[in-house]
Amino acid sequence: MQKVLIANRGEIASRIIKTCKQLNIQTVAVYSDADEELPFVKEADIAHRIGEPPVNKSYLVIDHILEVARKEKVDGIHPGYGLLSENGEFAKRVTEEGFTFIGPLHSTIQKMGDKVEARKVMQQAGVPVVPGSDGGVDNIETAKELAEGIGYPVMLKASGGGGGIGMIRCENEQALVQSFDSTKNRAKAYFGKDEVFLEKCVENARHIEVQIFGDSHGNIVHLFERNCSVQRRNQKVIEESPSPVLSEKTRQAMYDAAVQAGKAVDYINAGTVEFIVDGEENFYFLEMNTRLQVEHPVTESVTGLDLVKWQLLVADGEPLPLLKQEEITSEGHALEFRIYAEDPKTFYPSPGQIKVLNWGESENVRIDSGYDEGNKVTPFYDPMISKCIITGQDRTEAIEKAKAFFSEVQIEGLKTNVGLFKEIIGEKEFLDGTYTTKWLQDYLTANRT
Known about the structure:
The longest helix has 19 residues, at 173-191. The strands form five sheets. This protein has an eight-stranded antiparallel β-sheet, sandwiched between helices. A five-stranded parallel β-sheet has the order 3-2-1-4-5, with helices on both faces. By secondary structure, the protein is an alpha+beta fold. Helices cover 34% and strands 27% of the residues. The radius of gyration is 21 Å and the shape is globular. The protein has 15 helices and 20 strands.
């Protein structure tokens, strides 16, 4: 490929542009009125306005993006993450127009995007799934009967959901009844269909995901795991690799299951298989993310690999750069912190102008940022300012470097969650690695009331 359009914005657009430049690939950015002054627009070789700030008038308008692609005669389109990245119709339209979609096949995206269908596929492939309903649940009476058999608490989930949206924990039948219709309505509004299903709520859980990569020649490998259990309202806050407090036996079994999951759908390009792990290290398939993850720099930091480069090469029809699993190694430890423009007490977005942005002079820190000093964080998009990835020879060193880093960071002009990170990395449960997906929410409840 000689010319690539990036159908995304902010830090992930900048990230993709960086690798394209290294490969001498010309880049085309698309932007809304709200993003005109952001770094990615200036970093791209060519940039086109595609609409007004709301995503349904710009970044989600497939026709606008394809119009730019045709005008610029690009070879491929990279969707980044979020927005249209897991939209099977978009991937299909891209290929039908004669462009290369830098991601998996549209059929894979559609199959794995339906959580009910994904569960069925994984069960057939022998990958363990969370006990739950065999398919969608149409009415509350059926839901009550199934939940009684599964055992409370249960998770009520939208079949088309993702990213923590469209799921709710139900402690008892009353909670299930109260949440059923509203969850179906929310699913219809967000994902275009109201299908929901039930899963057993795994207690004392850790959220661990395995990065996989496949090519069009039938090769699939894993690139180790990331622990994403520091979460608030089912949204990831900190990710790290390798996962602390996980036996080598379970780790290897998860790698094998993730590769098996990829083989079951003939997976091509970058993907992530997400698992929930209980206190006894039983693990279950949650979902497959058919795109590059927000937290991919964690994997890049411990493997020394460029996953965007791999995406581009594989999309161009080349085999994986490293075909043998034993050629892929992991060294050291990496932590990723998602810095958001948000109120540290209410956690509501805090848009505004970044008047001061100083990352300090700490070593072993990678900053993937979507903003420069002077830019405005607008209310139209996810308020993430940057991702800060900190590495060390081991976990203890990485945490110490994180403490030094956050002691120097200066962000002024809006509110951020930097203070929360300073708290977390000093807490016992985080330091000893025993934290679960409930830990941060419990900590906030105890310390913010």
